């Protein structure tokens, strides 16, 4: 799956470390692929002739049609209109304000100071899209839970979690590289159901071990994960618009750190003094990084919708990955506390 598959009750340290490494590599690849699909880097606006500015909004087709325009001309205020065509020399400068700045468009800092919270800036379309995303996320969590229960009650629970974990990558890649505009919605919904179901199957051995330790651990982990998810979602909504998007680079660096720890854990024996350190970084670091990813993905979902990306399945997949990784790590922490 897109997050570390749970270990079975009896495998040795090498298969578990190998599983974590493959899963972390895939998650980082998915994040990098999603970032590469965004608007190309470069200046946000550059002056053009005839009193216009040229701005890049999206490199993907608009949800309002099949147009593929990536640039939008914005008319700058003109002091005089002598005809349809006004030369640059005829445009007068706007009079300065009391603070000395020209009375044209506000600066980026002024817009940030005037803007309220992300929640206050939500449009009706964004709200409708978020409801659809969270409904899809809840459906995916339900499918994953049903698959876990089915695997625990049947011989499927004896299968090594690496098999369904790697199998979940196939529908996930299908979702990432298909579009609602070019592929059947039924097909893509089936890919989402297959991904969440295989992810739940991969978690069955870990859930079996947790239930043997204490039957109350699984409900506790689910409640803690839901609380963390709701808290970070509320934090992103009451923060300034786009403020959580600045976490993208640090979170990407954190993913690289987790990837390095997973690779190192494959070559460090369990008896080494470095193994507990690498395990702690993977456990606590992964918990912190994916908790912050909830806030990042929430504002990124809003930002992408405003840019024309209204694929609720892809946004639900991002949030499902965060929920599953956090649930796994909280479950492991509670199991360790019960063992103590």
Number of strands: 3
**Morphology:** globular
- Poorly predicted tracts of residues: 1-26, 32-95, 97-106
Please, what is the oligomeric state? single chain
Question: Largest sheet, described in full?
Answer: 3 strands, antiparallel
- Give the % helix: 55-70%
> Order of strands side by side in the largest beta sheet?
1-2-3
Count of alpha and pi helical runs:
10
Distance between the termini: 30 Å
Radius of gyration: 24 Å
Query: Which structural class do you get from the secondary structure elements?
Result: mainly alpha
Content of β-strand: under 5%
Mean pLDDT: 75
Characterise the protein shown here.
It is globular and about 55 Å long. The protein starts with 12 loop residues before the first helix and ends with a helix. Helix content is 61%, strand content 4%. Helix 1 (13-36) runs antiparallel to helix 8 (248-267) and helix 3 (124-153) crosses helix 6. Strand 1 and strand 2 form a beta hairpin. Strands 1-2-3 form a three-stranded antiparallel β-sheet, with no helix packed on it. It has ten helices and three strands, in the order αβββααααααααα. With 340 residues, the chain is mainly alpha-helical.
